[in-house]
Amino acid sequence: MAEDKESAEAIVSEVHKKIRAAFDVFDHEFNKTVDVREIGTIIRSLGCFPNEGELHDAIAEIEEEEPTGYIRFEKFLPTMTKVLMERKFRPIPEDLMLQAFEVLDKQKKGHLELEELTKYMTQEGEPFTQEEMEEMLSAAMDPDKNLIFYKDFVSMMTVDDPR
Amino acid sequence: MTSSPTGITYCKCLCVVICSLPTLLIPPAMRAALLIQRWYRQYVARLEMRRRCTWNIFQSIEYAGEQDQIKLYNFFGYLMDHFTPASSERNLISHIFRENNICHNVDWERYFCYKSIEVPELYSGPHLSFPITCSNAAELVEAFKNKQQLHSRYVLQLLGETWRLLRILPNISQISTCHNKEITICGDLHGHLEDLLLVFYKNGLPSSEKPYVFNGDFVDRGKDSLEILLILFSFLLVYPNDVHLNRGNHEDHIVNLRYGFTKEVLGKYRLHGKKILKLLQKIFSWLPLATVIDHKVLVLHGGISDTTDLHLISRVDRHKYVSALRPPKRKRQNRSGMTDSDLEDDDPTAKSVDSSRRRVHSLTHSSSTGTRHEVQRRSLQGLNNRVTCSVEEELKERRRQAGLSQSYGDLRNSLTNSDSDPDPDSGELLESYGDEWKQIVDMLWSDPMPQDGCVPNEVRGGGCYWGPDVTEEVLRRHNLTLLIRSHECKQEGYEFCHNRRVLTIFSASNYYEVGSNRGAYIRMGPDLVPHFIQYQANRATRALTLRQSVGRTERSALRALREKLFAHKSDLISSFQEYDPENTGLISLGHWAGAMEAVLRLGLPWRVLRSQLVGDTLDGMLDYHLWFRELAITEPNTELSNASLLETMYKHHSNLETIFRIIDTDNSGLISFEEFRQTWKLLSSHLQTEISDEAISDLAVSIDFNKDGSIDINEFMEAFRLVGGDLLQNEGDPH
Fold first, then answer.
1. Is the CB of residue B539 less than 8 Å from the CB of residue B570?
2. Assembly ipTM
3. Model-wide pTM > 0.80
4. Cβ–Cβ of B547/A17 closer than 8 Å?
5. Between A42, A118, A160, which is nearest B731 by CB?
């Protein structure tokens, strides 16, 4: 039992260090605070896949009662530790991603038109901003044909993952 | 396609409602969209994290290099001050400290004279005539765009004219936005000609309708530093009231030895390069230090400190500070009994003053020093008392005092409190020199920090870090509203700080690597509100996706980092072994991160970088010997058996190259075996490493690729080029 407790503590300690390391990258003033707008990046860089709504909720939990625009590490750490230990916001498997694209590809062409994808991404779900849309297109779209071959896109993005 | 704000809110509300419904009730298309958005945003966030880390890597390596450079230079300074003139080490390096000697300007003019240089018929580059016209200047821009080279005759002529003009300019230029003129302000260019051309393309060439301020660091790192200077100087000559140049910390011949400008000039002008460099040395020392717009906006290269005093700065003899890294020598008595000051570049520049050039302040005022003071004799006197100390002990003492901040104090201490010299005036004289020097270094080297206060800038090794309280105080004291500076690379080309009272502007895009950052310039009208124009040179980079540009920059940063790892291999292994007392060859990743920081001291987020540097681990434990082997850095291709010698050399190869170039007084690119040995001895005493004479001799022989008794500096440095290993190679990116 004692051994288990020790290894549990060790795991938590490692998790804390990981969170601290990611937080520090954005702590520009070296005073254990980060701009609230960077929290999403930090949480996601730790391997989580929250959607915007979930992120919003997480931030609400971490923010001060009177929001200052900054998040303190003392408040971030316990919330984030819980997120990681409970494995919230799990990654999305590659095959599920493919299915998602296939749902949008009603005619089962194997690719999506520029307008089709743009419409879905900017009008449905948690819409992309114009900048986000442009960036995704520049990565996903074949510029000559204005088509998105989503199968290739998904595998490319998944391979890119250094984890 | 952007919805109106209320549209988005509505959509978000709807979405929140929908998302809280049981999954099956959400229409499939929306579910799919949600999934894709969630996935893609995660990806972008991870890229952003990688980009930040990459940036940190480049920046910390860059500043560590500058710090290194300054330490080396301080070491030389110490040698100069404390060794008897006959010592051989001192002889090797003394020429870089030689002041402007016993030479009238007239003599210098003769030395720099271009008239005997003939331009051959075959020369197809641009021809310049003087006084230079704006079409000449525009022609020069076109010629450089077409990769032509200006003939050395014209280079020397142009530089000569520039030198003459700069001598009559004040330390601080005062300009105004009268007549509704908008002023354009550019930051660091660092030899990136394509960025300057892009700015001219977007903004127009300098003219009396289009005044420009160029805020220093025109040279080093990029490959067209000289072309940039020639363009800036030609426009300066045509429009002296509308083009303003501020000196940067890289407008300094000592810094140029390390960062590429010296090499560039010698490579492009084999015959006259040395002369050109000498003239540039003078020009750099005569560059103005700052510009003030409408008495409200201060523009200078580095920054300020809590002691910054513009009134003091406007009165200094700026050209005495040939290199900002070292204050000028006190007046020295030469054989004929005259002091250097009597022969300084005093007045006769009148002849070359054009009617179009405005003569503002006179820089020339006789220095108000009472007693002549001979520092050299003094430091030797000091040495007499300790003459029995060995060289090693002296150096040990010196090494104890590391860092420029202490060398301010050092310098003042060694000069003021050595022996009992009762001369009261000299104390004052030294004070004022110390103050002046500090003011100039602060202006050229400092960086802002978020916290209040003012502390020495130990990362770079020069100047200070100043806080928002210092900004407020200095601006208030001088009745200014904004400080514009450069000196630090910014991802977007510009950045505000200190409650928008300090603005950093950086004009070299792709500075660290293709795709690393944008460049920017400022347009400012009579309202003194800065407007920014951003750009990125190199069409290819604009077409890169976020992923590709991050990937490329990252690979470059990792390559640079790997070189550091290799250079510190034995230190790293020892450090790893401390965590592995039972010698299993394995350490935890946490310990790995700790050891990396302890040895490399780069302040990098090792845990975050871990995934990029370390491959497979066994249960979270790293086999560190295997890891080093897998980094697969091949040994440089020389037949050297002594691995630790090699490693030490590699670790300090920048310093080694700097010393080589200093020693190579005729700029031939070659040094003799004896000089090579002396170089090594100098470096090893600076670093506190022991290398036997025999090892050095063997090394020298094996490096002499031509077997002709001399060593080619470039060949030697080539031998250190490293080839990357599989572990860190590109993962599927076609670029």
1. no
2. 0.93
3. no
4. no
5. A160
